[in-house]
């Protein structure tokens, strides 16, 4: 009986712990604007800033956490938001690499502000998408742009 209880506790603990460790972490392409929920601080430019994004899968759903850093790697801000849907989305008529299924998109809302994340390939980089036709196909209302 104690062995069964131990295995049950281990299994439940593993599920809970999954929410504390990222599934994957990405850096924002330096050629992209900042996500809509971040503003360039006074006295800085976009070139002075980096953003990392980490995906988490929790029993309550998928989330992403974004960290904003200055050029000295000081964390300036951190926000988290809910990802829409159960998995990344591929566009129906869009061009994609048939062997890997890219690009993929994630719609995320942070503190009431929505943005579209784009993954162009199997790389540790993410991009922000501003193509109105992509937003429309993903079902993101135009007033969120």
Structural domain count: 1
Q: N-to-C terminal Cα separation, in Å?
A: 57 Å
Number of strands: 7
Gyration radius, in Å: 18 Å
Oligomer: single chain
Provide the helix percentage. Answer: 10-25%
Structural class: alpha+beta
Report the biggest beta sheet as strand number plus sense, adding barrel if it closes: 7 strands, mixed, barrel
Q: What is the 3D shape?
A: globular
Mean pLDDT: 87
Q: Which series of helices and strands comes N to C?
A: HEEEEEEEH
Please work out how many helical segments DSSP would assign: 2
The proportion of strand residues reads 25-35%
Widest beta sheet: strand line-up? 1-2-3-4-5-6-7
**Low-confidence blocks of residues:** 7-18
């Amino acid at each position: 009986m104690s062995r069964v209880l131990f295995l049950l506790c281990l299994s439940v603990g593993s599920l809970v712990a999954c929410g504390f460790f990222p599934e994957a972490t990405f850096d924002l392409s330096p050629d992209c604007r900042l996500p809509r929920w971040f503003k360039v601080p006074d006295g800085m430019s976009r070139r002075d800033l980096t953003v990392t994004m980490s995906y988490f899968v929790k029993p309550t759903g998928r989330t992403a956490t974004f960290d904003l850093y200055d050029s000295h790697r000081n964390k300036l801000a951190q926000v988290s938001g809910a990802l829409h849907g159960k998995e990344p989305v591929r566009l129906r008529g869009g061009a994609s690499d048939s062997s890997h299924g890219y690009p993929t998109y994630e719609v995320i809302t942070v503190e009431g502000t929505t943005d579209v994340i784009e993954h162009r390939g199997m790389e540790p980089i993410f991009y922000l998408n501003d193509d109105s036709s992509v937003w429309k196909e993903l079902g993101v209302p135009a007033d969120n742009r």
